[in-house]
Amino acid sequence: MISVLITLAVATGVGLLLRRRNGRFRRAVSSWPDAHQAVPGAAVTLLQISAERCAVCPQVAATLGDLAARTPGLAHREIRAEDNLDLVRRHDVLRSPTVLVLDGTGAVVARASGAVTADQAWQAVAPLLATSGTRDLGEAARAQR
Amino acid sequence: MPSADNSPRQTHAGIDPRGPRVGAVVTSLLLASVLVLGDRAAGRALLAFVVALFVAGAALGPARSPLGLVFRHLVAPHLTPASEREDPRPPRFAQVVGLLVTASGLGLALLGVPMALTVGAALALAAAFLNAAFGVCLGCELYLLGTRLRRA
């Protein structure tokens, strides 16, 4: 009986921790700019790394793709983790999907993992689009609403 | 800006994501019962039944497994139609992981290793409960780690 309770308590702790982390963007610094991964012409690229066995990846891809389609200067690109193990190791990608936020030069400026929502992604990229100065942010904000 | 999506995923017929979730609830209850019964004949027999369910789930996939059929015929008719469909491969992979964990626990327990049944059932219960309560597929999270280690 006690083993059941301990197991469920530990699992609940892990679950709450994962839920809290889901989609939270953290600042990141990359010493390796992945210039070829950034979509040409985009001020910000959301690089989504998806494993083949991944339940939430299609949903995240649809959400981010939709946000990118509505936001000038923002691009979304999805790559297979299995085909890019080099990049997966270099950036210590542990969970699928992981979303790397790349600036125009391909440097990683932020990252998140798990079920990213449109709102979370927007909060992370809006300041970058503003400082990139190449786009009309008012238009971007209207597109978002 | 258009999405430069060189999408790695083919489209699948897809399953109702609530199916594996309901299956995880049933599996959690069974595994909790195994822990309560402990390492004796009844506990081992029930764990063997869970192993058999994982074998079926891994071999047949979530749509045609016994728990999948129970969901489709007994539970789904009482629910609103699925608003979204899910790739059946991640839950199937999770069944393989569950099979490895529970079969190891049962096998070692039969060989007389102390605590093997408890540890195996507890690990599987933690994973099934995470899926049932939080929708987290632990087997899927491990998949990427496994890929990295294999080709490291």
From TrEMBL, chain A:
<protein>
    <submittedName>
        <fullName>Thioredoxin family protein</fullName>
    </submittedName>
</protein>
<dbReference type="InterPro" id="IPR036249">
    <property type="entry name" value="Thioredoxin-like_sf"/>
</dbReference>
Automatic annotation (TrEMBL), chain B:
<dbReference type="Pfam" id="PF14340">
    <property type="entry name" value="DUF4395"/>
</dbReference>
<dbReference type="InterPro" id="IPR025508">
    <property type="entry name" value="DUF4395"/>
</dbReference>
<keyword id="KW-0812">Transmembrane</keyword>
<feature type="transmembrane region" description="Helical">
    <location>
        <begin position="44"/>
        <end position="63"/>
    </location>
</feature>
<keyword id="KW-1133">Transmembrane helix</keyword>
<feature type="domain" description="DUF4395">
    <location>
        <begin position="15"/>
        <end position="147"/>
    </location>
</feature>
<feature type="transmembrane region" description="Helical">
    <location>
        <begin position="123"/>
        <end position="145"/>
    </location>
</feature>
<keyword id="KW-0472">Membrane</keyword>
<protein>
    <submittedName>
        <fullName>DUF4395 domain-containing protein</fullName>
    </submittedName>
</protein>
<feature type="transmembrane region" description="Helical">
    <location>
        <begin position="93"/>
        <end position="117"/>
    </location>
</feature>
